[in-house]
Amino acid sequence: MKFEEALEQLEVRTGALGSRLGLDCMRELVKRLGNPQDELKVIHVAGTNGKGSVCSFLAGALQANGYRVGRYISPSVVDYREKIQVNGTFIPKTKVAEYLEKLFSVADAMVEDGFEHPTAFELETAMAFCYLRDKNCDYAIIEVGMGGAEDATNVIARPLLCILTSVSLDHVGMIGNNLEEIAATKAGIIKDGAYVVCAPQKESVCAVIEAECKKHRNVKPVFVKKEDITVSVKSETARLPYRGITVFSYKNYKKTELAMLGEYQPENAAVALEAAETLKQLGVTLKEEKIRKGLKETKWPARFEILGRKPLVIADGAHNPDAVMRLMKTMDNYFTNCPIIYIMGVLKDKAVDEIVGLSVKKADAVITVTPPNNKRGLPAFELAQIVRGINPNVSAADSVEEALEEAVMMAGEQGVILAFGSLSYQGRLRSAYELIAKQSAKHPGGAAWEV
User: Fold this and answer.
1) The CATH number, out of the four listed (3.40.1190.10, 3.40.980.10, 1.25.10.10, 3.40.50.300), of the domain defined by the range 3-297
2) 3-state secondary structure at position 250
3) The whole model's pTM is what?
4) What is the Cα Rg of the chain in Å?
């Protein structure tokens, strides 16, 4: 079976299943595979925002210290294989086909025995466990897909470390009806004896996490405090963030440098630093200078990522109110008195009205897109209707490519294009930008599309 055939069969088998919370099917699946997750030293990460960045920073710190680090993330942005990687190298196509072919056989046997067929996420999670085990990873950083307690990744019985990033309202009704219920669901990854590191949280969330920890033996959470984080330099030049770095201090880590921009990244990096210090308590050898090196070299797609300049094109995966609020603060830090054009694409099950209300007043123009290849995508026309209630300068594009071309014409060389709302179209945006950038020499004026 080839890579393309494996992905096609995955869609055929699981397309109608959608997402499913609950661990019965997943437990049966990994049991038939010999419970590969039990052979991994797992760092389990849950939360609403910041999971990808925290995982990236921590992986960078461990890799810089010479460790083989496996990662399982969702969703992917650049490439399907991005979901599963070792030291930044994506799982090979041949291995995806090999593992999925085996998993399809196991799934068929499960169905014959009266079990439900595993979902795509369950099969991919099992594939990640098997691949990271077979690659003899020193540590496996596993990111929760949705929630925590009933997420497929929560078959991990003995995590080395549990990390809870910023918790806010998202997936309301699916993993909880209010902030406290959502926090309890995410804290469901905590197990007896695990070390727990938490991002700064609202007081009610802290109380929930502490209560969950008390249900387990030998668990005491460590919370990163905002007052311990100081940002000394956001960028060398406020107008040109792509030339700058973020410099912050956290406890003994003075003047720590990050290549990743964004008002929220010092907090995410501080969580990674606290996690590294916790790993030291567990006997993991980590040198400070190499931790710093790992953080400085960390990059992660679609997190206030500069795709190019003239005009400045920024990609960000902010997809819920808390993330959008932080994104707007970042924009305020960097940009004044220049045209700002939004490209927005959102999923219909998100808090669309609130996302729009928090963001579109700041835009000179808004271009909406339908997230491609996603059944949950809100049609561009419907999103434009919502935006029009606040900002009348809005239009709906037929494609991501069309939206980008239109945004560039509006922005001019001195403008800023911000593409946000969902990670699900960021890969398409990147491809569109790279394609047009290659043709920059033929573009009238030449300077537009400068990378």
Assistant:
1) 3.40.1190.10
2) strand
3) 0.89
4) 22
